From TrEMBL:
SUPFAM superfamilies: Inosine monophosphate dehydrogenase (IMPDH) (SSF51412)
Keywords: Flavoprotein, FMN, Monooxygenase, Oxidoreductase
Entry's Gene Ontology molecular function annotations: nitronate monooxygenase activity
Keyword Flavoprotein: yes
Protein name, entry field: Nitronate monooxygenase
InterPro entries per the UniProt record, alphabetical: Aldolase_TIM (IPR013785), NMO (IPR004136)
Pfam families: NMO
Keyword Protease: no
Length: 323
C-alpha cells in the first residue's frame, strides 16, 4: 500500500521515493522484511547492520528480495570488521548509513559502489565532519530518539541548525530529522523545520514486520515517554565498548532500576548480571531485557503493518502541509 498522493521533497526526488520516510537501521530489528515493506510503500528501507553479523546480514538482504534497500552500520564497530561493508555493497544498496564515528575511511568505497552515504550526527561539529568526509545525506538526531545517541541536543533545535549549515556550506547535501517522529504531525514538523525527510525508528519498531517479539512490543506500547531513560547499563553487560559520549535511550525496567547509577558494582558482579540478561533474551522477560525505544513510544498504541503506517503518516503530513 503506497500513499494516495506522493509527498515530494528533495529526498524523494533524489532517491525516487513517493514519501520522505526512511527506516532507521535498528540493529537486529530492521531486517530485510521490514526494509522491503518500507521501500515497497514508497519510502527507503535500511537494514540494521549494527555491530556486524555476517550471516545475519546476508540472510536479511535475501529476505528483502528485489526491493531497493540500504544498510546501516555502527561506524566504530565497522572499523573493526571493514569486510562487512563489502557484504553490504555486494547487494547494490541504495545507501549506506554510518553512525557514531568518523565516516571518512568508508566514504570513497561506498560512492565507488554507486550508493549514497548517509551520516547520522548529533551536533554541529559532527555535521561538519560528515560534510567534510563527503556525506550525501545528514541525519540530525535529537536526544529524544531511541537507542544510542547523546542528550545534548533536541530534534526541534538541532534540525534547523543543521539544515541551515548544510544550505550554507553544502547545498546539495540533504538533511533528515530523527528523534520523536511517529506520525504525520511530526513528519510535517520535521519538513517545516527544514529537513528533506525523516528517519523513523521507534514507530517502525512497533510494526508487524519488525524483528521484535510481539509480547515485548505489546509491553512497550503501554509505556509513556516518561518511562524511557538514557543509560549505559546494557553496554556494560554486553561488554560493548561504546565511546563515552554516547548512551542508549531505553525503556526503563527492573534491571535498569537496579543497576543504573551503580555501574561500578555492576562491573564487579558482571557474570551474574550477564546470566540474568541472557535468560531475559531467551524468555522475552521485559523486566530484564534491553528494550530499545525512544520517547516517542508514548505516542504509539498499536502494532501496525509498515505499509499501512507509511500510508497514514504520509497522508496526514500532506494534509497538514497543504491546508
Amino acid at each position: 500500500m503506497s500513499a494516495n498522493t506522493p509527498l515530494t521533497t528533495r529526498l524523494t526526488t533524489a532517491l525516487g521515493l513517493t514519501t520522505p520516510v526512511v527506516l532507521a537501521p535498528m540493529d537486529l530489528v530492521s531486517g530485510g522484511r521490514l526494509a522491503a515493506a518500507v521501500t515497497n510503500a514508497g519510502g527507503l528501507g535500511l537494514i540494521g547492520g549494527g555491530y556486524g553479523d555476517r550471516d545475519w546480514l546476508i540472510r536479511e538482504f535475501a529476505n528483502a528480495g528485489q526491493a531497493r534497500v540500504g544498510c546501516g552500520f555502527i561506524t566504530w564497530s565497522l572499523a573493526r570488521r571493514p569486510d562487512l561493508l563489502d557484504v553490504a555493497l555486494d547487494h547494490n544498496p541504495v545507501a549506506i548509513m554510518l553512525s557514531f564515528g568518523d565516516p571518512t575511511p568508508f566514504v570513497d568505497r561506498i560512492h565507488a559502489a554507486g550508493a549514497k552515504v548517509i551520516c547520522q550526527i548529533h551536533s554541529v561539529e559532527d555535521a561538519r565532519q560528515a560534510l567534510s568526509a563527503g556525506a550525501d545525506i545528514l541525519v540530525a538526531q535529537g536526544g529524544e530518539a531511541g537507542g544510542h545517541g547523546t542528550a545534548a541536543r533536541s530534534t526541534f533545535t538541532l534540525v534547523p541548525e543543521i539544515a541551515d549549515l548544510a544550505a550554507a556550506t553544502a547545498p546539495d547535501t540533504l538533511v533528515l530529522a530523527a528523534g520523536g517522529i511517529t506520525d504525520g504531525r511530526t513528519l510535517a514538523a520535521a519538513l517545516t523545520l527544514g529537513a528533506d525527510g525523516a528517519l523513523i525508528g521507534t514507530r517502525f519498531w512497533a510494526t508487524t514486520e519488525a524483528l521484535v517479539p510481539t509480547p515485548i512490543q505489546q509491553h512497550a506500547i503501554e509505556a509513556t515517554g516518561d518511562d524511557t531513560i538514557r543509560t549505559s547499563v546494557y553496554d556494560l553487560v554486553r561488554e560493548s565498548p561504546w565511546p563515552t559520549r554516547y548512551t542508549g535511550r531505553l525503556l526503563r525496567n527492573a534491571f535498569i532500576t537496579h543497576w543504573h547509577g551503580h555501574e561500578s558494582h555492576l562491573a564487579a558482579t558482571l557474570s551474574d548480571a550477564q546470566a540474568t540478561y541472557r535468560n531475559a533474551q531467551t524468555h522475552h522477560d521485559p523486566d530484564n531485557l534491553n528494550i530499545i525505544v525512544g520517547e516517542a513510544i508514548g505516542q504509539i498504541h498499536d502494532i501496525t503493518p509498515a505499509a499501512e503506517l507509511i500510508h497514514t503518516i504520509t497522508n496526514q503530513a500532506q494534509n497538514l502541509l497543504t491546508t
